[in-house]
């Protein structure tokens, strides 16, 4: 029996493509040449100093997840033939800047050549013209990312097909209705309504934010979409239902201690997750002088799904928060 493509592509997937991204930026940015009456300039090298690049998929949608720091060496010649060299540091190249337009790129310039009128004129020319050339390439990057790696995440319902239609409205409504009627009561917390062998998954990450702020990002319905990039439902009260990632995760709040702990039932809306089965996710916040350690403890994960759930916590929770500039340390 062939699995419908809308079902095959329902569950979460993510692929780390940082190595490919480094090669892409090195190849594409070193091809840039700008010329003017002041002289000409090229990029001689590109280095990705920090960050990750991933392509994720949830509910048949491909999502680019990237936040990297970049350093560029540039060189050129003035109109009188003087060789000029310099460096450029770009603290953030990310989905949020390139696609969401949440902020502007920041460029930190360094001139390595001794100053002269001709050199200074070329340096001013570089600072004026090179950013637009770079940003044109940055805009091409997410398209190239999806074109190159999207096929590795989408699954066609039949071997000969490559398209992946989104789930139908009727299917979504049925799934939502089913989930809302099978969520267990918060006391006592039920791990499952069937006899399923389970285990636990624990992930930790440190974020450069206060525990109260992180608590709000996890529970405030208006703030959750900033890092999940999908609609959310959350009343942030015990014994109320919640929905994250556009319905990809559902459950019920058991208890909430602001800035300290969130306990909630948790079910992945995926063919790989057993029907009517709920795990319990406990999220704790431990604040220090300059950061907060967040520990995700998911009890009741079906045996055999530990690796998939670990990747999902890393890709959609931890890297989702990292993508909005919280600076995580795994």
UniProtKB/TrEMBL annotation:
<feature type="domain" description="Activator of Hsp90 ATPase AHSA1-like N-terminal">
    <location>
        <begin position="14"/>
        <end position="151"/>
    </location>
</feature>
<dbReference type="GO" id="GO:0051087">
    <property type="term" value="F:protein-folding chaperone binding"/>
</dbReference>
<comment type="similarity">
    <text>Belongs to the AHA1 family.</text>
</comment>
<dbReference type="InterPro" id="IPR013538">
    <property type="entry name" value="ASHA1/2-like_C"/>
</dbReference>
<dbReference type="GO" id="GO:0001671">
    <property type="term" value="F:ATPase activator activity"/>
</dbReference>
<protein>
    <submittedName>
        <fullName>Activator of Hsp90 ATPase</fullName>
    </submittedName>
</protein>
<dbReference type="Pfam" id="PF09229">
    <property type="entry name" value="Aha1_N"/>
</dbReference>
<dbReference type="Pfam" id="PF08327">
    <property type="entry name" value="AHSA1"/>
</dbReference>
<dbReference type="InterPro" id="IPR023393">
    <property type="entry name" value="START-like_dom_sf"/>
</dbReference>
<dbReference type="InterPro" id="IPR036338">
    <property type="entry name" value="Aha1"/>
</dbReference>
<dbReference type="GO" id="GO:0005829">
    <property type="term" value="C:cytosol"/>
</dbReference>
<dbReference type="GO" id="GO:0006457">
    <property type="term" value="P:protein folding"/>
</dbReference>
<dbReference type="InterPro" id="IPR015310">
    <property type="entry name" value="AHSA1-like_N"/>
</dbReference>
